[in-house]
Amino acid sequence: MLYKSLLTLFTIFIALCTPILVQSQYSESLNFQHIQEGMSQSSATVLLEDTFGFIWIGTRNGLNRYDGKDFEIYTKSLDGITGLKHEYITALHEDDQNIIIGTNEGLSLYNRSLNIITPYPFINEGQSIKDVVFETIAKHGEILWLGSESIGLYRYELETGKVNHFAPPNEYINIDNPRLNKVVKINVLDDNRILVVFTYNTLILNYEMEIISEILQTEAIITGINSSENSLLIGSGSGSLFKLDIAENSISITKEKEVSPGFGIRSLEKNIDNELWIGTENNGLHVYNENLDFIRHIEYSVTRPNSISGNSIWALLCTRDGTMWIAPYKSGLNIYDKEYYKFKHINSDPFNPKSLSNKLVNCFTEDDKGNLWIGTDGGGIDYWDRSLDIFENYSLSKKTFASNVVLSILQTKDDEIWAGTWTNGIAVLNTNTKKTSVLTSKNSFLKSNIIIDLLKDKKERIWIVNYFSGVQVYDPKTKTHQDITLKSEIDGSIINSIYQIFEDNQGNIWIGTLNTGLFKLTEKGDEWSSDHYHTKNSISNNFINVIIQDNEDTIWVGTQGGLNKYNPETNSFLVIAKSDGLKNDAIKGIIDDQKGHLWLSTEDGIIRYDTNTGETINYDVGDGLQSKEFIASSSITTKKGEYIFGGINGFNIFTASDVEKRKDTLTLFVSGLKLFNQPVLPNDDFGILERDISQVDSLTFNYNQSVINIDFKALTFRHPESVNYAFYLEGFEKDWNYVGNNPTATYTNLNPGEYILKIKSTNSDGVWVDNEIDLHITVTPPYWQTWWFKTLMVALVLLLFYIAQHVKLLNIRKNQRRLELKVDERTKELQFQKNKLVEAADNLASKNEEIQRFTYAVSHDLKSPLGNIKGLASLIPLEVSLEDHPGLAEYLSLIDVSCNNMNELISDITEIARLGKIDNKNELLKTNELLDLSRNLIKGKLKQLNIELSITENMPDIFGDRNRIIQVFGNFLDNAIKYMGNQENPKIIVTYEDNGDTNSFMVIDNGSGMNEGALKKLFTPFERFHDNVKGTGLGLYMVKQIANSHGGTIIAESEGEGKGATFKLVLPKAKIAAQNARKSLIS
């Protein structure tokens, strides 16, 4: 009797402990993402992942293709030519990248190249089954196996259209409705055998539809899945799981589990870890390992927003990346991706008394078992038993603790913790007896009942931070305490608004304040010296949130305005803030991972900061953070190397490897094309696409299709909103356009030519990956810019040229004969003219000889009087005293110069007459000296006519013949005087212009001027334009020849009669002219 009693008690104990043991192993709840908005209907009937990674969702009202961001919906059309045959989808099967679709009115076919759905193209006998409802589809070679809802199995030959039918074996079973014995699953075993699972029968058939083996099921089968090469798992409407084993010519069935008695099994799927997920009718999900040991039962929970959204699971799918897709009835889609959230989030569940007691988490400490004591703001203190994953709460509300608000926790002994509270002093908890005692300002040395931080130093003294009441040090050994006074170095005031305390490896105590910066206390004997750091000397902000020391002994301080790094050599801080790449300046917590990274909790997520490079990685709520806001100094590193940060919605626990940026590559595809903001579809009026845009790698546009929009996407179901894109058009641009999460490229007015649109993206972690795709774009030119049009135009021009040449040749030949006749006639005349010219030439030569003799005679006759004049002038100083006639010497000098010039001129004329050219004696001439001489020669005329002559000083030198240049200037000045007219204020200006390589020497007058006709004939010999002015008409002709012989020219300008004239002598600059002369001599 005693034995039976003990056995009963043991059995009860095991029964009570089993849930706890199961919970300890598998208690972690799974978080599901919910998708419903955008679906054509909320009840998914069948799921499929295609070759390209798209998810196809058949519903009771349409077919959906999902790319992680958008649903493309396919429905029944009115014309019956395109679109689904019926909106209710019963089956999906991928076939050579197209998809065969079972509906409630027969099969449809999705054509990927055109992105359209049409009725399945049955031929010949196949037309007889085009409206049959098929719920199971399999294909092997050129044979399509189709399982119907009620009338059995069909074999359809694709090439011939031949149909074979196998009726459901209802004669062996007692059912009232034959419709119920439908085909549940078809497995092609080899080239001559298939396995067919009906609701109540399982058979092996050959390809002639003859039965090889058959068994009856004891329960109605609803779904099945391959378990191994020769076995299947099938689920019944009663909630049982069976195993089918297939031999060469036989089948055996074994009942494996009563999974959900009374709740039918609607769906089966294996995940990437080979765990079996079982979807039931109204009983949620059941998960078993590969040995069919129970793992967990997942149900909809109104208290857990991330639970599955319904308990009737109609379809399951495991995609190639291991993501589980769940289709609860009328509840959209649920997705379980174990990598969706990088950070594990622990939160308060008000319906679970063994969960975290409050969402506001202030502090942590870890005991020697690896369990955590957690201080909350409103729930007291929690003890997290990590082996059982349960929280035991101690709070004022439960009368098990002294306060509901715990600001700091310190483990003082193995069996004792001190908790600093808000308004209730220090609660001392015995972790063995769970009894609490309290230290307050009334019963102890405490100066305040608000204890914001606690620290146990290397000497086992306990430092107590009293909110607005300073710092105290308690020595448990001597049971004495000491008050620490902090003074501001700015104004000497006592600082009591203390917030944080920390001891470094050197034994220094660092104290952070609320608004007056940071203090470092150094112990010297019984005294403490202090350094004060504030915004006026080095630290970035006076509000100190957290202080740590990393594994390299560097002190880091998190403030409300940036991160600060302590430099002991300068006793100052280096500031790292937003301007240095931090996402947020409010640094609430710091953890050193001992690998050169600091993990920073902030008011806008978590930052991983690289202390060597300054690079940062940002994490936000999308990565699984409890919220974007964390609580100051609420952080801890566990003995296992886990990092924990507390915030306003629970806390996050993770390791560095958990949150590493993924390097997975996403598939990019072009998803849309628009012209002038109008969608472009295959074979539409635009005439651009023959296939769907996602299936082409090149596009051709006309020159007038000038506004192009190209959409693209990266296929991902994990944070698609975090994918960034870039593109550039090779041939038009040189750099990438980084457009964030806006995957559209727009181009306008592209010139005709060849281009390549290059597109790339990051993955959902923002890492740029190697997934670049190219889209070749051709913009055709207008017809008048095409090669054939240009060729035609060239040919036409050549033809016209040929015709013109041919006509011209005919005319030439026609005229040639006419000319031949005239030539004969003219030849005689030319001979006569030739004789006359010979006679004239002889006469001309004779006259030239006479002119030369005359020139020599005239020169001789002129030189003799000039010599006499010069000789007589030289006698005047002998006869007359020059001192009595001061002006006489100047006149005698002018007579001498004029005689010399005339003598040289006569010699030149003689030489010109002999040789026919001017031979200059070039030298470097001072222009102003020549002009002064010319002015002296005409001084009398200027005085007589009251003409003002102005000569610019320091004019550039001239390289030329002295007498020739004087002759030019003399002629210019003489003409200006002669043609002054009746001016009231006659004026002559001599100046110059610098033209770069040449200089223009100008004589400008305000005289009578000349008209345009006179200007054209000005340099013609013997031309005269004023009868009342004496002259020969040779002067300007001569100076033009002189200018030409110097490599220059003469330019005359006048705005008309009565408006004066300007004469320019344009000569090469002296240096250039001299160089040219040397080159000429050398050559």
Automatic annotation (TrEMBL):
<dbReference type="Pfam" id="PF07494">
    <property type="entry name" value="Reg_prop"/>
</dbReference>
<dbReference type="Pfam" id="PF02518">
    <property type="entry name" value="HATPase_c"/>
</dbReference>
<dbReference type="InterPro" id="IPR011110">
    <property type="entry name" value="Reg_prop"/>
</dbReference>
<dbReference type="InterPro" id="IPR036890">
    <property type="entry name" value="HATPase_C_sf"/>
</dbReference>
<protein>
    <recommendedName>
        <fullName>histidine kinase</fullName>
        <ecNumber>2.7.13.3</ecNumber>
    </recommendedName>
</protein>
<keyword id="KW-0418">Kinase</keyword>
<dbReference type="InterPro" id="IPR004358">
    <property type="entry name" value="Sig_transdc_His_kin-like_C"/>
</dbReference>
<keyword id="KW-0808">Transferase</keyword>
<dbReference type="Pfam" id="PF00512">
    <property type="entry name" value="HisKA"/>
</dbReference>
<dbReference type="InterPro" id="IPR003594">
    <property type="entry name" value="HATPase_dom"/>
</dbReference>
<dbReference type="InterPro" id="IPR005467">
    <property type="entry name" value="His_kinase_dom"/>
</dbReference>
<dbReference type="GO" id="GO:0000155">
    <property type="term" value="F:phosphorelay sensor kinase activity"/>
</dbReference>
<dbReference type="InterPro" id="IPR011123">
    <property type="entry name" value="Y_Y_Y"/>
</dbReference>
<keyword id="KW-0597">Phosphoprotein</keyword>
<dbReference type="InterPro" id="IPR015943">
    <property type="entry name" value="WD40/YVTN_repeat-like_dom_sf"/>
</dbReference>
<dbReference type="Pfam" id="PF07495">
    <property type="entry name" value="Y_Y_Y"/>
</dbReference>
<dbReference type="InterPro" id="IPR013783">
    <property type="entry name" value="Ig-like_fold"/>
</dbReference>
<dbReference type="InterPro" id="IPR036097">
    <property type="entry name" value="HisK_dim/P_sf"/>
</dbReference>
<dbReference type="InterPro" id="IPR003661">
    <property type="entry name" value="HisK_dim/P_dom"/>
</dbReference>
<feature type="domain" description="Histidine kinase">
    <location>
        <begin position="857"/>
        <end position="1071"/>
    </location>
</feature>
